[in-house]
Amino acid sequence: MKPSTYSTELQQRLLLDGVVHPANLPSVSQINKVIRKELAMTRKKLTTIPRESTTPEANAAINDFLTEIANINPTTLHFFDESSVIKTTDNRNYGSAPLGQAAFEIQRYASNANFTINFLHSFSRADFYNILDGPSNGFELLNVFDEVLQEHRADGSAVLERGDCLVMDNCGFHHGHRIEPVLRDMLAHCGVRLLFQPPYSPHFNTCEYCFNEIKAFLLGHQMLSMKPKSQ
């Protein structure tokens, strides 16, 4: 049973798999009672885990990343990420799990971006952001860093300085054969190192915590994340 399985689905499986006779089929409320009382499970927010993140290769990549980043001065680290405000379909947000434990489920799902937030921050501040209409792509990424590399703070210092390290995820277009080499050259010209996170490890990018706050705000103000209808 997956954590997100509904009680009605459990009821159907009991019947279709021949576990119980139709005359003895438990009601949904009886199934819920068994889940709560006998299995000691509660309903909670569901955390989804990509299947690919559970492989030995993924674990090895995480260990390599942690070893490497442990030797970098944290004040030189800059984290970059994109986040889409999305509309999703057929996603289940809650699941059952034993009392005191989180509900995890390995799955994939698709979504469509309404707009994309590009965000860069460092040890003590937000350094740069912009908002794109719709999803991002490799060429938009290059445009972002063309702008970032020209940005300066109020004290006149560059947002990205020589000796800094830029951390970003392994989004497909970040590694595009026409994108990654150009991005590396742009950064290297300014003395900035590029470091990619391990695959399927968004928790290693602190931008995610900022995005959680932004999305929570937008959920409470959904009109802000809706595209106007064309006339």
User: Based on DSSP secondary structure assignment, what is the total number of beta strands?
Assistant: 8
- Which overall shape is indicated by the principal axes computed on the Cα atoms? elongated
Mean pLDDT: 83
- Fraction of residues in helix: 25-40%
The biggest sheet amounts to: 5 strands, mixed
Helix/strand class = alpha/beta
Q: In percent, how much strand structure appears in the residues?
A: 25-35%
- Specify Rg, calculated over alpha carbons: 23 Å
Identify low-pLDDT runs. Answer: 106-111
Strand order within the widest sheet? 6-5-2-7-8
Helical segment count: 6
The ordered H/E elements are HHEHEEEEEHEHEH
InterPro entries: Homeodomain-like_sf, RNaseH_sf, Tc1-like_DDE_dom, WH-like_DNA-bd_sf
Pfam families: DDE_3
Domain Tc1-like transposase DDE: 77-221
GO molecular function: nucleic acid binding
Description:
With about 230 residues, this protein is of the alpha/beta class. It is built from 6 helices and 8 strands; from the N terminus they run H-H-E-H-E-E-E-E-E-H-E-H-E-H. The protein has a 5-stranded mixed beta sheet, with helices on both faces. A 3-stranded mixed beta sheet has the order 3-1-4. A hairpin with a 3-residue loop joins strand 5 and strand 6. The longest helix is centred in the first third of the chain and has 14 residues. The radius of gyration is 23 Å and the shape is elongated. The relative contact order is 0.14.
